[in-house]
Hints:
By secondary structure, the chain is mostly helical. It has one domain. It contains ten helices and no strands. The longest helix has 24 residues. The chain is globular, with a radius of gyration of 16 Å.
Amino acid sequence: MDMWTTPRALGLLLGGYLLGSISTAILVARHLGGPDPRHVGSGNPGATNMLRVGGKKAGALTLLGDLLKGTLAVLAARWLGAAPPVLALVGLAAFLGHLYPVWFGFRGGKGVATALGVLLGLAPLVGLATAATWLATAFVTRISSLSALVAAALAPLWMAWLHPEPAYAWTTAAMSLLLYWRHRSNIRNLLAGREGKIRW
Protein backbone atom coordinates (compact mmCIF):
# COMPACT_ATOMS: atom_id res chain seq x y z
CA MET A 1 0.00 0.00 0.00
CA ASP A 2 1.20 3.48 -0.82
CA MET A 3 2.93 5.13 2.15
CA TRP A 4 0.94 8.30 1.44
CA THR A 5 -2.37 6.59 2.19
CA THR A 6 -1.53 4.59 5.30
CA PRO A 7 -1.77 5.52 8.97
CA ARG A 8 1.88 4.54 9.12
CA ALA A 9 2.86 7.64 7.16
CA LEU A 10 0.82 9.86 9.46
CA GLY A 11 2.44 8.17 12.45
CA LEU A 12 5.88 8.90 11.05
CA LEU A 13 4.99 12.56 10.54
CA LEU A 14 3.62 12.83 14.08
CA GLY A 15 6.69 11.10 15.48
CA GLY A 16 8.98 13.48 13.59
CA TYR A 17 7.10 16.50 14.90
CA LEU A 18 7.13 15.25 18.51
CA LEU A 19 10.84 14.48 18.32
CA GLY A 20 11.52 17.92 16.90
CA SER A 21 9.44 19.45 19.70
CA ILE A 22 11.99 18.39 22.30
CA SER A 23 13.77 21.63 23.17
CA THR A 24 17.40 20.71 23.70
CA ALA A 25 18.31 24.20 24.93
CA ILE A 26 15.76 24.15 27.74
CA LEU A 27 16.69 20.62 28.81
CA VAL A 28 20.40 21.46 28.77
CA ALA A 29 19.80 24.65 30.77
CA ARG A 30 17.85 22.69 33.38
CA HIS A 31 20.49 19.95 33.55
CA LEU A 32 23.36 22.42 33.94
CA GLY A 33 21.45 24.68 36.29
CA GLY A 34 21.51 27.65 33.92
CA PRO A 35 18.81 30.21 33.13
CA ASP A 36 15.93 29.49 30.79
CA PRO A 37 17.26 30.60 27.36
CA ARG A 38 13.82 31.96 26.46
CA HIS A 39 14.21 34.65 29.13
CA VAL A 40 17.85 35.71 28.72
CA GLY A 41 20.11 36.91 25.92
CA SER A 42 18.31 36.92 22.59
CA GLY A 43 15.45 34.88 24.03
CA ASN A 44 16.04 32.17 21.44
CA PRO A 45 16.31 28.56 22.70
CA GLY A 46 19.10 27.66 20.33
CA ALA A 47 22.80 26.87 20.30
CA THR A 48 24.06 30.42 19.68
CA ASN A 49 22.12 31.91 22.58
CA MET A 50 23.11 28.99 24.81
CA LEU A 51 26.76 29.62 23.93
CA ARG A 52 26.38 33.25 24.94
CA VAL A 53 24.49 32.74 28.19
CA GLY A 54 25.62 29.26 29.24
CA GLY A 55 29.10 28.79 27.85
CA LYS A 56 30.76 26.41 25.40
CA LYS A 57 29.47 23.19 26.96
CA ALA A 58 25.87 24.35 26.93
CA GLY A 59 26.21 25.62 23.37
CA ALA A 60 27.81 22.40 22.13
CA LEU A 61 25.25 20.14 23.79
CA THR A 62 22.39 22.21 22.40
CA LEU A 63 23.88 22.17 18.91
CA LEU A 64 24.35 18.40 19.01
CA GLY A 65 20.87 17.70 20.36
CA ASP A 66 19.11 19.99 17.90
CA LEU A 67 21.06 18.50 14.99
CA LEU A 68 20.49 14.89 16.04
CA LYS A 69 16.72 15.18 16.36
CA GLY A 70 16.49 16.25 12.72
CA THR A 71 18.79 13.47 11.56
CA LEU A 72 17.26 10.74 13.71
CA ALA A 73 13.72 11.56 12.60
CA VAL A 74 14.70 11.02 8.96
CA LEU A 75 16.86 7.95 9.61
CA ALA A 76 14.12 6.29 11.66
CA ALA A 77 11.61 6.86 8.87
CA ARG A 78 14.07 5.47 6.32
CA TRP A 79 14.69 2.39 8.48
CA LEU A 80 10.92 1.82 8.56
CA GLY A 81 10.80 1.88 4.77
CA ALA A 82 9.42 5.33 4.04
CA ALA A 83 9.56 6.55 0.45
CA PRO A 84 11.44 9.77 -0.41
CA PRO A 85 8.34 12.03 -0.27
CA VAL A 86 7.49 10.75 3.20
CA LEU A 87 11.12 11.04 4.32
CA ALA A 88 11.12 14.66 3.21
CA LEU A 89 7.88 15.41 5.06
CA VAL A 90 9.11 13.68 8.23
CA GLY A 91 12.19 15.89 8.14
CA LEU A 92 10.03 18.96 7.64
CA ALA A 93 7.80 17.85 10.53
CA ALA A 94 10.83 17.58 12.84
CA PHE A 95 11.94 21.04 11.75
CA LEU A 96 8.47 22.48 12.42
CA GLY A 97 8.49 20.76 15.80
CA HIS A 98 11.66 22.64 16.69
CA LEU A 99 10.15 25.95 15.58
CA TYR A 100 6.79 25.36 17.27
CA PRO A 101 7.27 22.72 20.01
CA VAL A 102 4.10 21.32 21.52
CA TRP A 103 6.00 20.49 24.74
CA PHE A 104 7.04 24.11 25.32
CA GLY A 105 4.08 26.28 24.43
CA PHE A 106 4.92 26.35 20.70
CA ARG A 107 7.80 28.74 21.39
CA GLY A 108 10.88 27.23 19.80
CA GLY A 109 14.18 28.12 18.22
CA LYS A 110 15.07 29.38 14.77
CA GLY A 111 15.84 25.95 13.38
CA VAL A 112 19.34 26.21 11.93
CA ALA A 113 20.83 23.12 13.59
CA THR A 114 17.68 21.03 13.14
CA ALA A 115 17.46 21.95 9.46
CA LEU A 116 21.09 20.90 9.06
CA GLY A 117 20.29 17.62 10.81
CA VAL A 118 17.40 17.00 8.42
CA LEU A 119 19.68 17.64 5.44
CA LEU A 120 22.30 15.25 6.81
CA GLY A 121 19.62 12.59 7.13
CA LEU A 122 18.16 13.15 3.67
CA ALA A 123 21.36 13.71 1.70
CA PRO A 124 24.62 13.68 3.71
CA LEU A 125 26.66 15.47 1.02
CA VAL A 126 24.14 18.31 0.95
CA GLY A 127 24.25 18.54 4.73
CA LEU A 128 28.05 18.67 4.71
CA ALA A 129 28.08 21.30 1.95
CA THR A 130 25.58 23.41 3.90
CA ALA A 131 27.61 23.06 7.10
CA ALA A 132 30.75 24.07 5.20
CA THR A 133 28.91 27.13 3.86
CA TRP A 134 27.95 28.16 7.40
CA LEU A 135 31.48 27.63 8.71
CA ALA A 136 33.13 29.52 5.87
CA THR A 137 30.76 32.48 6.26
CA ALA A 138 31.17 32.46 10.04
CA PHE A 139 34.96 32.38 9.71
CA VAL A 140 34.90 35.45 7.47
CA THR A 141 32.13 37.49 9.10
CA ARG A 142 31.94 36.12 12.67
CA ILE A 143 28.17 36.66 12.52
CA SER A 144 26.08 33.57 13.27
CA SER A 145 22.82 34.84 11.81
CA LEU A 146 24.43 35.96 8.55
CA SER A 147 26.12 32.57 8.27
CA ALA A 148 22.76 30.86 8.74
CA LEU A 149 21.11 33.07 6.11
CA VAL A 150 23.83 32.41 3.54
CA ALA A 151 23.73 28.68 4.23
CA ALA A 152 19.92 28.67 3.97
CA ALA A 153 20.07 30.52 0.65
CA LEU A 154 22.55 28.03 -0.82
CA ALA A 155 21.08 24.82 0.64
CA PRO A 156 18.42 24.43 -2.11
CA LEU A 157 21.13 24.90 -4.73
CA TRP A 158 23.32 22.29 -3.07
CA MET A 159 20.35 19.91 -3.04
CA ALA A 160 19.51 20.54 -6.70
CA TRP A 161 23.11 19.86 -7.68
CA LEU A 162 24.17 17.02 -5.37
CA HIS A 163 20.92 15.11 -4.81
CA PRO A 164 18.20 16.15 -7.27
CA GLU A 165 15.23 14.43 -5.61
CA PRO A 166 12.13 16.66 -6.10
CA ALA A 167 10.66 15.97 -2.67
CA TYR A 168 13.96 16.80 -0.98
CA ALA A 169 14.27 19.98 -3.05
CA TRP A 170 10.84 21.22 -1.98
CA THR A 171 11.50 20.43 1.68
CA THR A 172 14.88 22.18 1.58
CA ALA A 173 13.33 25.25 -0.03
CA ALA A 174 10.53 25.30 2.57
CA MET A 175 12.99 25.10 5.45
CA SER A 176 15.09 27.88 3.93
CA LEU A 177 12.08 30.17 3.61
CA LEU A 178 11.05 29.45 7.19
CA LEU A 179 14.59 30.13 8.38
CA TYR A 180 14.48 33.55 6.75
CA TRP A 181 11.11 34.22 8.39
CA ARG A 182 12.44 33.20 11.80
CA HIS A 183 15.50 35.41 11.31
CA ARG A 184 13.59 38.55 10.35
CA SER A 185 14.71 40.41 13.51
CA ASN A 186 18.30 39.41 12.77
CA ILE A 187 17.92 40.71 9.22
CA ARG A 188 16.78 44.06 10.59
CA ASN A 189 19.78 44.14 12.93
CA LEU A 190 22.13 43.22 10.09
CA LEU A 191 20.80 46.04 7.94
CA ALA A 192 21.22 48.43 10.86
CA GLY A 193 24.71 47.15 11.69
CA ARG A 194 23.67 46.02 15.17
CA GLU A 195 24.01 42.23 14.91
CA GLY A 196 26.39 40.71 17.47
CA LYS A 197 29.43 38.71 16.51
CA ILE A 198 30.61 35.26 17.55
CA ARG A 199 33.28 35.15 20.21
CA TRP A 200 35.43 32.20 19.24
